[in-house]
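Subgroup meeting minutes
Present: P.N., E.W., G.H.
Scribe: E.W.

1. P.N. recapped why we're keeping a running log of single-chain structure predictions: easier to compare across weeks, and new members can see raw inputs and outputs side by side.
2. G.H. added today's entry (108 aa).
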Amino acid sequence: MATLAVQAVLQSGIVPTFTAATSGGDVFANDGRTYLHVKNGGTGAVTVTVDSFTPCSYGFDHDIVISIPAGAERIIGTFPPNRFNNDSSMVSVSYSGVTSVTVAAFRV
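Output recorded in log:
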């Protein structure tokens, strides 16, 4: 499991840095204004799962599960801290496959 550096989005713009997704999953710091950008450069769909640690306002503890088709990308988030942060104020994400999958975390 790797810790993704959260990149601050600036009015002047940034050059985003993407890293390879880790087979054991990744974590990133979350303040409620953070989102995850996932690029699937592979030849098959990849499922991304963001772990929910606390039930939603309806009482269900359901993860966010997103399927990303081959060659596509998705921006996922934001993540309410009271629902998605673990004890270390981190969000945990896992992938069904990591071949040609890159990720980046951003804060707005």
